[in-house]
Structure to design on (340 residues):
């Protein structure tokens, strides 16, 4: 039985890794504060604040695999100090945000990294975490760089915004789709690959990214399952930015929308992942899982990313007014059976 220590394990990805590891028959321990939630059944939770002295005392024993989910310098460094000598293998979860540029479609793991300037910045801290982990662990280290992660219970709402929005029907405000792409990896595929990297004692860096799909094809797939009468209202980048609509994620955003100069961010190579034994679910299969979860959680619920119903309605009104058209109907008043 493989002994796995997850530094984290109560957040979204950490819990998915933990649950998958238990299902595979591993002995799993999570070291975490427990503030993000509970651990899955079968996982031993050791509650500790990793910023406090003695936080690692209960887990300073031999591990077949340690999985580090944090990028905060203090946490990454303290874990290495306490546990590097006790781990047969170590997996660091990094990010494709470590790369200096997003201008080359199909870029792989050899692309240049950012120069670290400010450890308070997410990407800089990820690069720093990779560097210090590599220096301490050598060929015992696998660095996994996920791109956009999708799947049930995603707390970011970036991917799920669109399947949910299309299911509500009516006029939908969308960005221009030409030369834009969507690339995501299913959280279950990612968890399985992370555990595979540990079991095979992989070393080096791997971009954990899924299939890359043109944005217009993504919208076409979603529209095919949307209520009758669903229409797309396309706004230019300039129009959206002038009305304080944000790129990519967060409040008052159109998720997955990127500046045209950064669209290769969603076109990174997954060749190394596939060579290393990673499995990638078909895009349509992952989207179906997300949609099922969105229906369960509520298509009209408040979200961390995207436009609220009120914001979108106002923007559609402004857009229609500018085009000399009547205001669009309020999507909340559409009573088609598929929306209910």
């Amino acid at each position: 039985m493989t002994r796995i220590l997850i530094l984290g394990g109560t957040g979204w990805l950490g819990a998915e890794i933990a649950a998958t590891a238990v299902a595979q028959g591993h002995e799993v321990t999570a070291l975490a504060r427990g503030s993000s939630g509970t651990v899955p059944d079968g996982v031993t939770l050791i509650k500790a604040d990793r910023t406090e002295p003695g936080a690692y005392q209960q887990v300073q024993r031999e591990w077949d695999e340690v999985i580090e989910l944090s990028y905060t310098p203090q946490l990454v460094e303290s874990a290495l100090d306490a546990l590097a000598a006790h781990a047969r293998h170590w997996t660091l979860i990094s990010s494709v945000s470590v790369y200096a540029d997003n201008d080359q479609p199909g870029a792989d793991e050899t692309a240049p990294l950012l120069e670290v300037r400010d450890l308070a910045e997410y990407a800089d801290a990820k690069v720093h975490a990779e560097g210090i982990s590599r220096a301490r662990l050598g060929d015992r280290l696998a660095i996994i760089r996920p791109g956009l992660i999708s799947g049930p219970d995603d707390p970011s709402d970036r991917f799920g915004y669109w399947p949910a929005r299309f299911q509500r029907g009516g006029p939908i405000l969308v960005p221009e789709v030409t030369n834009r792409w969507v690339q995501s990896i299913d959280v279950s595929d990612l968890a399985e690959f992370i555990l595979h990297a540990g079991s095979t004692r992989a070393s080096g860096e791997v971009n954990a990214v899924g299939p890359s799909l043109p944005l217009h094809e993504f919208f076409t797939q979603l529209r095919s399952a949307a209520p009758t009468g669903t229409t797309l209202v396309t706004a230019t980048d300039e129009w959206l930015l002038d009305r304080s609509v944000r790129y990519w994620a967060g409040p008052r955003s159109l998720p997955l929308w990127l500046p045209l100069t950064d669209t290769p961010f969603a076109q990174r190579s997954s060749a190394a992942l596939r060579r290393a034994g990673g499995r990638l679910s078909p895009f349509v299969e992952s989207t179906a899982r997300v949609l099922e979860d969105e229906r369960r959680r509520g298509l009209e619920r408040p979200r961390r990313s995207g436009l609220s119903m009120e914001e979108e309605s106002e923007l559609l009104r402004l857009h229609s007014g500018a085009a000399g058209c009547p205001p669009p109907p309020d999507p909340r008043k559409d009573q088609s059976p598929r929306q209910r």
About this structure: The mean pLDDT is 93. The first strand starts at residue 3 and ends at 7.
